[in-house]
Protein: Formyltetrahydrofolate deformylase
Organism: Neolewinella marina
Amino acid sequence: MSNSAILLIHCPDQPGLVAQVTEFVHRNRGNIINLDQHVDRHVGQFFMRIEWDLDNFLIPPDKISDYFETLIGKAYGMEWQLHFTEKRPRMAIFVSKASHCLYDLLQRHGTGEFDCDITAIVSNHRQLEYIAERFDIPFHHIPINRENKTEQEEKTTALLRELNTDFIVLARYMQVLSDAFCRTWSYRVINIHHSFLPAFKGARPYERAFERGVKLIGATSHYVTADLDEGPIIAQSVEPVSHHHTVDDLKRIGKDVEKRVLSQAVYLQLRHLVLPFGNRTIIFN
Amino acid sequence: MSNSAILLIHCPDQPGLVAQVTEFVHRNRGNIINLDQHVDRHVGQFFMRIEWDLDNFLIPPDKISDYFETLIGKAYGMEWQLHFTEKRPRMAIFVSKASHCLYDLLQRHGTGEFDCDITAIVSNHRQLEYIAERFDIPFHHIPINRENKTEQEEKTTALLRELNTDFIVLARYMQVLSDAFCRTWSYRVINIHHSFLPAFKGARPYERAFERGVKLIGATSHYVTADLDEGPIIAQSVEPVSHHHTVDDLKRIGKDVEKRVLSQAVYLQLRHLVLPFGNRTIIFN
Amino acid sequence: MSNSAILLIHCPDQPGLVAQVTEFVHRNRGNIINLDQHVDRHVGQFFMRIEWDLDNFLIPPDKISDYFETLIGKAYGMEWQLHFTEKRPRMAIFVSKASHCLYDLLQRHGTGEFDCDITAIVSNHRQLEYIAERFDIPFHHIPINRENKTEQEEKTTALLRELNTDFIVLARYMQVLSDAFCRTWSYRVINIHHSFLPAFKGARPYERAFERGVKLIGATSHYVTADLDEGPIIAQSVEPVSHHHTVDDLKRIGKDVEKRVLSQAVYLQLRHLVLPFGNRTIIFN
Amino acid sequence: MSNSAILLIHCPDQPGLVAQVTEFVHRNRGNIINLDQHVDRHVGQFFMRIEWDLDNFLIPPDKISDYFETLIGKAYGMEWQLHFTEKRPRMAIFVSKASHCLYDLLQRHGTGEFDCDITAIVSNHRQLEYIAERFDIPFHHIPINRENKTEQEEKTTALLRELNTDFIVLARYMQVLSDAFCRTWSYRVINIHHSFLPAFKGARPYERAFERGVKLIGATSHYVTADLDEGPIIAQSVEPVSHHHTVDDLKRIGKDVEKRVLSQAVYLQLRHLVLPFGNRTIIFN
């Protein structure tokens, strides 16, 4: 597969944005593979994702950032990211004791559905170490308590940086991350919450769903921010439940929704299809 | 169609309940058409719905209540309701200005999907009177404000009683019912809330869903209790949404979910398939 | 609401298409409101929908076609349609005896969800005439049998043309249209088939779904072509069913899916969001 | 967890069936945990699943079959199966080269969601042997071609019998089983077909779904019979797709549906919740 470039852009809406960007690609002999744009009139913002083939592109890959910023980005006040498809993203996975999301991620990685490197599995417990071993992924036991939290988080960040980690997936990791850690990895930590947010924020969502007598349960994947369960939502899904289901049944059914919704978010992240803006996300085609 | 009897039962769980009830029907030559039972171990309660053909049943319909209570109900501390399928339920509809749920109910009534009588359309506004006229249903304009609420609700109850109304459907009726009215019509008022409860309780759910950036919107039908949006849930459904959708789009998409979820609750109610218990509902097959 | 232009384009894929079209709009002071494009590499085709505000557009609306064809369309071998949002589409509805889809369409029209004119309700039976009267839409009884089919279809086409009808919706119309009629109204007749195509093509889909013991039933809206039930699919949806459901239950549940799926297709058609190509459809955002 | 008995019954519908069976359990001091029954009026058949606690049951487990047949089964012409919850079902898995369903089954087994023993993984290829090793499940390479099919199937049956295998799961096993094998394991082989049956029976369903331009793809789990893809359906599900998706995307999205639908069937089988009758299945609560 040949290398292509992906630009994710947002800026205040103004005339000519699409024309400028597509002209930049076209004039330099880039062939557009995908283009998706969105204007949010509510907030007056423009969002765009454009992917083009680099085979005949006149600007060398390592100069594209400079040229784009100089010729277009600066003039329109754009914030933008540039990615190359030949660069495999590098992902770390944080877990505690529940294995279903971890298994699901590893399986998708193993079958080639997730085209990425897994740099590390990090856990505050040792229970899932055997799974990491089965899949030959380095496992790091980094126990965290109230006293050592800052220190252990800094150690974790140092480790992940050394491993050139691009983003982190919390696969039912049962620790609240500090504000400092959230800032360091801003928009680069994806969490799965086991409810249909904003319903049942916080602890014990299945128990509370049972008590409320809901007829659907859900799960939500989102970027982690300092506000617990309040970050930009990437994906959500639900499953029907009934009076037949006990809390244990809800947990069992919920696991499937969790796996699906977390993996969907990871897939979108790996393909650079998500653009968070404020508390919302643009999900490109 | 021949007449059949439907018993909805609940009581503390104890051995022999199914055997006793089915034996009561069988011994008196009733042919069981449907039977569904549920035991909620969490609260130690037994729930049952049984429907049997009355063609050869030895006990005359007007004596079944007496016999059942004397022979079984009393001994097991049962609470139960008896319905006959030949008796068409009588439903009133409350509306304000939004027409989509009203149209949907009238259409299902008109095509025979809802086997019931509509005793009245009641509204605090006159905007939808023309729809009532189109469908030849009596329309009652009963304006309500802070001062006249008690009086107008009592007038409404008197009217509905005179019309032998069994239950009320709030088809996007934008008034909060008083505690007194809720008690009078306990478990006999079905509301549609335009969100996936318990998310976005209260006012402006679509606006708040938009602001939160959710990826699914929903609707919830439930029995009305004195606690706003806290009554037992009958049905819920959701539809996917994306960053492309404005608040107006959410409202448009939401209307479809509202119609579907409200009509599903009405259908279940008409067939005596719902048994509320505390804050939950048993939905029989 | 101000007037805007919508271009639906397809042509063989080639470099610079997006740049050319957006530049055409931008250079003439059109402000792009929506842009969605798609490249189908399988068939080497490019598809695009672009909508722009006409307020400051330098080319007068009645000249846009000429200019676009001369400056761009011809050079790239494009097939394209131009629509203006201020022109309300004009739709005819064909029915037989089943009322649920008709009611649903009329209700959405009545509440403003469908921004269009309904030119006529045409039927080979008189059963639903009263509904047309309720909603004040002209009803035309045009009975069709084997002998008079050609003549009656020609009469229908003449009538619809006189009424400036843009497209036709078959709302459970139980007649097979002739090849000639299909050609005349090519890609302008939308049908609802009461199964999840290609499963259960042809007659009695619910009976056959019951016999096969499926666990989901569905409906499909599609453009009508000379090949029965083989035209390009616009929308599909399903609902879960179980062994509890009789054929009549499947029909009842199916009606809801049919209404939803047909109305979704009509909505997309009214907003010029569908582009059929061969046997497939592009559904723009 | 204490031991309980599960009876799955079907017979011609006749009065008193529920009363007789519940009375049998009750009189002998069995406490009913679950009861679900269904009457199919279309074919005049009665279906029932009843589960009761054996703690105080007067009839010893190994005598229940005799007693039930003598006292009730024979008199009503019942066909029935008796299961005990303390007996872990024993399942074999057949695979070829695709790993996603295998991983999903092993993961659910590993996390305790599937309460069963896996007796063997059987494959006509060696590609997935490493997964069997990772999960410590015996792997048997049994290559099959036109010449050795009968022989190899007999060898497989002998192996599975020796391992006391109760049922077989075809987790994307790409061999057509012989009629003889299907008869031997009648209603004990569960397959996943990668389409929404009866659409796209046979080979290459995703390619054909793409060509037909469907808007939903699906998967179907069913019991295997001698008629390919025609056996009784256990579960079905779908996912939305669009013109954006290539055949490879359909396959990727489809894998998720396949895993879910196959695992749902296995779960139902393990809990003795499925009763096939002719070409349909009763799925109990």
Observations:
- Chain A touches chain B at residues 38, 40-42, 47, 196-200, 210-216, 218, 232-238, 242-244, 246-247, 279-283 (CB under 8 Å).
- The two ends of chain A are 20 Å apart (CA to CA).
- Chain A has two domains: 4-84, 90-283.
- The mean pLDDT of chain A is 96.
